[in-house]
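Recall that a protein's primary structure is simply its ordered list of amino acids. Everything else, from secondary elements to tertiary packing, is in principle encoded there. The following example makes that idea concrete.
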Amino acid sequence: MWSPTEEEKYGVVICSFRGAVPQGLVLELGETVQILEKCEGWYRGVSIKKPNVKGIFPANYIHLKKAVVSNRGQYETVVPLEDSVVTEVTATLQEWAVLWKQLYVKHKVDLFYKLRHVMNELIDLRRQLLSGHLTQDQVREVKRHLTVRLDWGNEHLGLDLVPRKDFEVVDSDQISVSDLYKMHLSSRHSVQQSTSQVDTIRQRHGDACRMPLPHHFFLSLKSFTYNTIGEDTDVFFSLYDVREGKQISERFMVRLNKNGGPRNPEKIDRMCALFTDLSSKDMKRDLYIVAHVIRIGRMLLNDSKKGPPHLHYRRPYGCAVLSIMDVLQSISEIKEEKDFVLKVYTCNNENEWCQIHENIIRKSSTKYTAPSSNYGLIISLQLLRGDMEQVRRENPMIFNRGVSVTRKLGFPDVIMPGDIRNDLYLTLEKGDFERGGKSVQKNIEVTMYVLYADGEILKDCISLGSGEPSRSAYHSFVLYHNNSPRWGEIIKLPIPIDRFRGSHLRFEFRHCSTKDKGEKKLFGFAFTPLMRDDGTTLSDDIHELYVYKCDENSTFNNHALYLGLPCCKEDYNGCPNIPSSLIFQRSTKESFSVSTQLSSTKLTQNVDLLALLKWKAYPDRVMDILGRLRHVSGEEIVKFLQDILDTLFVVLDDNTEKYGLLVFQSLVFIINLLRDSKYFHFRPVMDTYIQKHFAGALAYKELIRCLKWYMDRSAELVRQDHIQEAMRALEYLFKFIVQSRILYSRATCGMEEEQFRSSIQELFQSIRFVLSLDSRSSETLIFTQAALLNSFPAIFDELLQMFTVQEVAEFVRGTLGSMPSTVHIGQSMDVVKLQSIARTVDSRLFSFSESRRILLPVVLHHIHLHLRQQKELLICSGILSSIFSIIKTSSLEGDVVEEVEMMVESLLDVLLQTLLTIMSKSQSQEAGEYVSCLLSLLRQMSDTHFQHLLDNFQSKDELKEFLLKIFCVFRNLMKMSVFPRDWMVMRLLTSNIIVTTVQYLSSALHKNFTETDFDFKVWNSYFSLAVLFINQPSLQLENATPAKRKKILDKYGDMRVMMAYELFSMWQNLGEHKIHFIPGMIGPFLGVTLVPQPEVRNIMIPIFHDMMDWEQRKNGNFKQVEAELIDKLDSLVSEGKGDENYRELFSLLLLEKIEQETWRETGISFVTSVTRLMERLLDYRDCMKGDETENKKIGCTVNLMNFYKSEINKEEMYIRYIHKLCDMHLQAENYTEAAFTLLLYCELLQWEDRPLREFLHYPSQSEWQRKEGLCRKIIHYFNKGKSWEFGIPLCRELAMQYESLYDYQSLSWIRKMEATYYDNIMEQQRLEPEFFRVGFYGRKFPFFLRNKEYVCRGHDYERLEAFQQRMLSEFPQAIAMQHPNHPDDSILQCDAQYLQIYAVTPIPDNIDVLQMDRVPDRIKSFYRVNNIRKFRYDRPFHKGPKDKDNEFKSLWIERTTLTLTHSLPGISRWFEVERRELVEVSPLENAIQVVENKNQELRTLISQYQHKQMHGNINLLSMCLNGVIDAAVNGGIARYQEAFFDKDYITKHPGDAEKITQLKELMQEQVHVLGVGLAVHEKFVHPEMRPLHKKLIDQFQMMRSSLYHELPGLDKLSPACSGSSTPRSNVLVSHGPMSPESIKLLHRHSPLNLLGSVRHSSSSLSSHTSSETGNLVILTDSSVGEAAEDMYHMQASPSTSSLSSTHSAPSQMINSAPSSARGSPSLPDKYRHTRELMMLLPTHRDRPSSAMYPAAIMENGQPPNFQRALMQQMIGPCKPCSDPNLSVAEKAVPAAPSSWSLDSGTREALPFLSVHVGSILAPPVPPRSLPHGHYSLHFDAFHHQLSDAPPALPARTLRKSPLHPIPASPTSPQSGLDGSNSTLSGSASSGVSSLSESNFGHSSEPPPRTDTMDSVPSQAWNTDEDLETPYLPVRYSLSEPDVLESLKSQPCRSHSAPSGVIPQDTLDPPALPPKPYHSRLPNIENEEGMIIEDDDKHRQLHRKVSQPVSGGKEEQARVAWEHGISEQ
């Protein structure tokens, strides 16, 4: 049965519980639980963490704790009964644990480890506290450590500061706000000081005379390792001050035996001393520890004859020193002992023994000898601090070891009252003795006794040093053969005080003979009494004593015999007539000196003091004696304080009249002496004396009389020192007066009460009189008043003993009231006056409510005056905070309404005024103090106070002024953050007080200022305050931890909601005046609704409907609301406010309200429009604040910008976003896009003189000036982006303007600029970018991308692979789709992100330029890739049955054309696709395009050689011809012949007759062009290359003959045909001269190239020999210039006609793919070799077309032998070169970080892009209409850094292959014959020469890529077969290093590689042909930068998105062709 628990209420989980039972509560170790019920070993309850979830858990998993239960029952609360510090530590550790782990994640490693250390310390300290075994002092200390660590951690983790008092967290409800403020300050201070808060408070408010902390040295002798002495030793340690040359401490003595151990075995481990009472001043002195070693034994150590062995002498041995300065640092840092070794040095000359320590310190090394070993005295030292009590408490172990306390000679800085001491220190200084007729000097030993008056020797009154017991006799050490010994030995004489008087010292002198008997012979003595006859003690001085002769027989039994003699010179002067016949004769030549120092609290050496104490002996000298008291030293006075006071009062009683004033002065002197910090601790002695010993019952009368007399004379006297002294002594004088009166009334049963009262009244009148004097003229008077005011508050407590609280309060009120007001006194007095008031407020008197009612008005009056004049603000704030503190404490016990009322009346207004002034100067310290005072006052105010306050205003103006002030202060409070961020307690309390106050004031506002008296200013102030309040950071609970949120909600609730309700109701109260706040309050209210608190939003959003409604009523529309809302929404959302929920709620609430309105439609459209704007703004913000890439940000900005322009027509916002977008482009280095963006603004401006205001960063200027500035900036950006063609029209526009204004200087400048641009177009290299189509599918994409497709303009050098990587890193959550098909609905609607990416080929609009023969390629290249709006991509497929022998028969191309919303480039690098169209291209059309492209390419190349545009190296031409001719011999064009000239085909396709004829013509044309090419080749060929030329001629003949059957008439074409005879010879001429370097890049730019068709030969002529090895054979690259237009139509479909190989590629591998990188989506492994083989072939001019195909690899990773042979043959003469995946541009110019670059690695900006982005056609380039909102997305992961970049080339393709053209892959839009390259075989132009790219299987050993720049898409989508190796980079079998090598060395023309082809640059042929390729390609660097060693690795490197690999076109063609033939 479950029953409620009685005792078991609270517990901690000691073992985690999984809750695996029905109703089980999951609990983790360490959680706390509240238990509600129990049942048979189970509890039911809740976890404190989740108080809403109840469940059951096993009882034995819980450790119960005691707790207090309140409100028992269903809603009971349980508070554990443990120390609050423990509770806090527990909660804090739990909070830190979470943050601690985050530190590691954020790499804040240093703090991570520090915090871990502190957390461990906290756990350990908490354990100690919980153990319950600590003493109270230890508990205190542990708590101090705990709180210091808690505060440290909180500060470093940015958590809230915890205010504490005595280590406990304070409850803000129990103390006043000003106290809370001070606690925050001191907690902050203690965190910074890392000291306990208690110390800190003491430091801040510290008692003026805090006792200085004494220091103590603990010294312990561990051992003495000099066993060489072999005798007992005494070691004396003392502290020695070098500067003063004297010992400052007693000696500590250790007696050791001859082995170095203690002579007393009990002392083992106990040879330790504590040198006490060193002041801070002493610690700064140059102190040394000096150790003197005295041996006890024979006279001479090494001479056994000297003296008999039984006689022992004390003999000097050695000395050691240690500088305390040197070790102080090290010992003060650690808390334990530290060891030191002291070397013991021996003295060279015994006569100098007394100086040995000084010699060692001064390092006078001639005077001492260093020990032979390093050992010596081993001591340990420790520094302790604090008074002795504390030291004993803290170090009990030291005292348990029997430590010897070794005191300072003399008194410490502070003499403690109970410190009784009576020590006389005697130093044996020196002696001078006669030789006495001996030949050698004496060995003198001095023996000393202390004798009492009766001659008895006093026992144990001589101490050689602490640590050893005292003795009765002292024997000095003996100096060998020395008649003038200097000892310097200090002896302490602790003589009992009662034996002191009458005692004397006797010194006996003996000679120690070293003869056989060795007896000691007495030869003289000296003596001295300890006290003089007048009762004073022996003075501290050197005393030279007389030496009297005597011998061993002399008896000293009758000491009176010698005591009558003079002991010294002074004594002799005192008694000259001493008989000379006495027994003892004085030896006049001998003398003996001692010095003494008395440290006694009982004996005095002062005559005047003694005279006072014995005043009755000198009755006639009393006046003089009293006068001389002031000259007695303070030390003597405090020692005899009680005796002196007794004497004074006895004297006073004896004759009041005569001595009264003198006694009064003496009393004042003594009282003031005790104010000195040195004697401050004697005040308790004085207090005790007054309470217990004082007996002057009549003294009060005289004291009052004297005091009054002094005060009354203060007006007249000029010198007032004695008056001031009396004022300073006021407190104790009153104590004496009151005590005296008490004694009197006790004795007389209260007689003379009235007289006493009236005398006090009169005294107060005198006090008032002194204070009321105008002191401005007299400085001395000021000091008198100041002294009086300072002492005055101290007398209240005394008065309270005699008078009632009200009476004392009246006295005080009168006195304070008598002070002149601020105006009449100087500033220094002001301060004193306020300090006096402050002390009055802090006194006990003020804590009584009766006295407060009397005193408050006068105190407040003075403060009010100061605040009015803004004087002494800090002191005033201190007084106020004390008052509030007292009132708060009183309010907890009683009623303080009346006092609060007084304060409100006097202070509230002036406080507000003061705060406004302070805040305007931003003095934070004062502001904090006053804010806390204001808050304290407001918090104390109740309804009635507020009511009275508001009723008391005389007029509405006054009320208005007050409201404005208080609202303004509150606003400043929130704006200025007077309290630091981590003062959460303070901030929340402030908010709570503000919200309460505002609730009181809002009713007054509503009542007084709504109807007729509406006042906009007050209401506006109110609204701004409410808005600021709700937006306060400290109230945003969403950001707080759950525990903190719960704590705040429990205590205060959500104050934002309270204020929101208040705000809403006030808004409703406004009625028709609401219109005044439209549109002003829209922004602020919008800010409030954006606070993420649902309730606040629900309350506030409807206000917008209200505003719309009111504006609609007034103006018939709500345009203002609309405009303002949109404006403000933009700025607020960009500040990070608002979220998706807000958007929905906004729309929902407003639409619901608007439904009922007549203006419903406009309202709904407005709300929808705002909602849509919010969508975009939120997207924009998320992009901006995340680590999003430039691309996303740009896309977002364009989207938002267009929305502002098109949908809501906000021009200003539109222009702002234009500039934001421009800045982003500049940051990403997209200069062209930046220019187009700015052009949008420029187009909004006219060439007019209309003035424009300042806006953004533009100054105020005329429209013409702004437009001119913009044009110049835009031209500059076009220049940086190398888009000179776009800049030229702007140059012209500016030129027209300048011309019309006759501004010839500017005109000249702009014309020169224009000319420079033309030069740049012709001279500078520009890269042609790649274009990529990207589809964003799925609902997880931002709104502006969702389910849309874009085309993106790639960065320089960016291939598909790189682009894809970039996109995937930008959208890390996205999944790359592996096929190019359009996605279905399931993908479009899913909650995910899918990216579909492939490369596309641009279709230029401006074909005219491209068809002009004479236009240089540099110019054309620009038009090929700029102003492009249409893009195309081809996918090869087989239709109908596939012919195994010749795949070209059924190879179709599916061509997709995409049209964008705007043309590229534009304001973005990517734009959305507007329309897509699909067409299919038949095999025959494909073949025509392939052959045509190749012809065009050949023609261009030949023409360049003919017109000397290509210089020097003819390798490029050789390679091109070889590729076409050789491929043809091996079956190249034959494939097309077989396929389309077959009768069977002709009969089946009667409609194709015309096309077949066209193909035949093209083939004939190719033969013709080859002939011309060979003729040119012969002319330029190098002699060494003749064999190759001959081979080409032979093969050309074979080719002609093989075609002869089909195309009769071919033989007529001789190789010598000149170019001019060809139908299109003009093309050959069209290219300007080019440097060999430029050739590298050239190839890509031929017009044909422009077309996609050209780019990728649509039909690969060489199908694989077998499906397995399908090698691409590439049609020859004969360079017959073909009309450019053909190109444009052709865009060779990837495999329109593959001429060469026997088998055509299987259909599944031919998939449409973007031009730049096609990989077959479904390419089986077996087709990979062809692909690889293509890589061997020379690059082909254009970009590969199929981005979707993986590079093919051979099955076994090895190319078939014939292929290898072929490669060798090909590569022998000219090394193939290019990386298919690099387009020329890409290689030449580092890509700028793409706007969407996920990989935006640095791309170096090489200079080429510019050139080859195109040469301008004709200057009049029409200005570009700027597209909006288009993004072109770009994927390609390939950047090659070239060390030397090739020169400019007009290439469109980013790859170039100098010598080996690369055939286009069938998948690419151009066939392998790609004619797009003028140099290489083009896929469309020469049907014969190049194999189409459709053969995917390339030989797996492509030739090394020499042309790293070729345009092959870097990556293609892979099909299923490749899935197992996701995203491995595609590899080519070429070594990248080779490629780069070749690049550097070899000039070549650029070729765009077909999709699967690797472009290559040829190198000069090696001497010997390389071995099969591996050797040549040691390692290939794949696109990702990985190095691949051989081709065997190709397979594992395939990437999901793999890239077609291509070889040089011709080579591919040739190889494939040869392959075909060999198979046949």
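The first strand starts at residue 3 and ends at 4. The radius of gyration is 54 Å.
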